[in-house]
């Protein structure tokens, strides 16, 4: 009788240990899932290079934002909204700056989506950036809201 | 006891978990916003003190 109870307890503890093992495996799996969903990867060489290029260009773009010649568009780009404030001789350069910035931005949005394994997220990434560029723009800069240009 | 079933189930669980990650996942809007802010801060050089575009001028220019 005693031996039988002993055997039963042994079997039960054995089963319990196994069960706990599965729970641990399951929890680990879910932890990985949560981590994968809550993160956006932006630390890649391509993104770093784009960031640096945009940062250098910003020194030249900042006066154009301040004067209102260039504004932050609703689509995540920058736009030459009022060239009249730019001296004729510098309009070509302003145009080139805007084009180069928009090319970098497009590459940045695409690269972020790609780096996270979801190229189809590019439009979502662009929309997120469009909102944040505008939210973080300095007072006095021009931004596009509901299709109209307004001074922040 | 044989180790085979254990390994097999472990493999199945891991395969299922990773399948969930790659197949059914929505755009993580909050994380993307944070990532965007980090990049914008770098590009526009917004420090912690919110002093955008003001760069310390190198003083002592030898002329």
Question: Can you describe this structure in just a few lines?
Answer:
Chain B: Residues 1-19 form the signal peptide. With 152 residues, chain A is of the alpha+beta class. Chain A has helices spanning 2-37, 45-67, 88-115, 122-136; strands at residues 70-72, 78-80, 142-145, 148-151.
Task: Please give the structural blueprint.
The complex is a heterodimer of chains A (152) and B (63).
Chain A: H1 2-37, H2 45-67, E1 70-72, E2 78-80, H3 88-115, H4 122-136, E3 142-145, E4 148-151
Chain B: H1 4-23, H2 29-43
The helix-and-strand class of chain B reads mainly alpha
Global morphology of chain B:
rod-shaped
Compute the number of strand runs of chain A.
Answer: 4
Distance between the termini of chain A: 86 Å
H and E string of chain A? HHEEHHEE
Order of helices and strands of chain B: HH
**Percent of residues of chain B in helical segments?**
55-70%
Intertermini distance of chain B: 86 Å
Strand content of chain A: 5-15%
Instruction: Note the total helix count of chain A.
Output: 4
**How many helical elements of chain B?**
2
Radius of gyration of chain A: 27 Å
- Chain pair forming the biggest interface: A-B, 34 and 33 residues
User: What kind of oligomer do you see?
Assistant: heterodimer
Broad structural category of chain A: alpha+beta
**What strand line-up does the widest sheet of chain A have?**
2-1-3-4
Radius of gyration of chain B: 25 Å
Keywords (chain B): Signal
What features would you describe in this structure?
The complex is a heterodimer of chains A (152) and B (63). Chain A is 67% helix and 9% strand. With 152 residues, chain A is an alpha+beta fold. Chain A has 2 domains: 1-39; 45-151, no CATH class. Chain A is rod-shaped. The mean pLDDT of chain A is 88. The model of chain B has no long low-confidence stretch (mean pLDDT 71). Chain B has 63 residues and is mostly helical. Chain B is built from 2 helices and no strands. The chains are: A alpha+beta (152), B mainly alpha (63).
């Amino acid at each position: 009788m005693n031996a039988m109870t002993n055997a039963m307890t042994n079997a039960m503890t054995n089963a319990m240990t196994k069960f706990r093992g599965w729970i641990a495996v399951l929890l680990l799996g879910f932890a990985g899932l949560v981590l994968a969903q809550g993160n956006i990867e932006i630390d890649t060489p391509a993104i770093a290079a784009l960031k640096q290029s945009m940062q250098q260009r910003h020194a030249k773009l900042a006066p154009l934002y301040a004067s209102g010649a260039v504004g932050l568009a609703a689509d995540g780009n920058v736009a030459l909204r009022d060239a009249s404030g730019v001296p004729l001789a510098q309009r070509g350069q302003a145009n080139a700056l805007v084009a180069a910035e928009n090319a970098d931005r497009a590459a940045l949005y695409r690269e972020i989506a790609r780096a996270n394994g979801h190229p189809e997220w590019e439009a979502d990434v662009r929309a997120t950036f469009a909102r944040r560029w505008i939210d973080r723009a300095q007072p006095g800069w021009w931004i596009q809201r509901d299709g109209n240009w307004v001074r922040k | 006891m044989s180790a085979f079933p254990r390994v097999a189930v472990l493999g199945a669980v891991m395969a299922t978990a990773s399948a969930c990650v790659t197949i059914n996942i929505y755009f993580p809007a909050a994380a993307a916003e944070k990532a965007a802010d980090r990049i914008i801060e770098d590009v526009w050089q917004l420090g912690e003190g919110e002093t955008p575009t003001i760069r310390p001028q190198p003083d002592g220019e030898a002329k």
